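can u pls check wat happens w/ flavin mononucleotide
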Amino acid sequence: MELKAAIEARTSIRVFSDEKVDMADIREMVRLGGLAPSVNNFQPWRYIAVTNRKLLNEIADLVAQKIDELPATKSIAAANVKKQVTWFSTFFKDAPVLLVLVTKPYVTVLESAVELSHDEINLLRNHPDIQSAGASIQNILLAAVDMGYGACWLSGAMFARREIEKMLKISEPEKALAFVVIGKPRSEHKPKAKPNLAESMEIIE
Ligand SMILES: Cc1cc2nc3c(=O)[nH]c(=O)nc-3n(C[C@H](O)[C@H](O)[C@H](O)COP(=O)(O)O)c2cc1C
């Protein structure tokens, strides 16, 4: 598939068929994710692939609990909104493969030259570690499309980030950053309309 066609065909897939996913395909997607640009070419991430259904259900339960505990507004829609957000944050439990992106600290040369901590420099540079991770995830999403799979990026599960880190034995300075679910789509999906694209660029000559 041409890159442009993959970009145009990609859409978030949240419901999957029972078809087993070949781990070699997931490895290939992660390899392609690793080719993304990253700060200082540091690839400040690693991926954990989870297929264990019991573990996925346990993580989803924790996420649901965390969302339930969030202080609700007085809006009459609050309960319904929480229910929706819970679904969009826990549907990974039924996905064939969950990839957890774990960020690793990168080294910046500036640390040896200025009186600023790594965290201060990271903040001033607008979190290049997180920006790099996003580039890697996008590569994986496009690779998934190219290889006949569907995928979805999830940050909603991070309501239970600390608990997830404990369950997956991720310890400081590493952090869980996002989930990507991958599988064969249960049905065909058309990419969503993206209105106002023309307004998303300004030219200053
Ligand atoms: C940073 C980020 C976080 C996201 N988190 C979630 C999520 O928690 N749950 C979910 O269902 N979709 C999540 N998505 C997918 C978006 O909802 C989706 O990309 C958006 O609705 C546009 O649809 P499309 O991907 O089909 O073009 C996330 C996407 C991004 C980029």
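The chain has seven helices and four strands.
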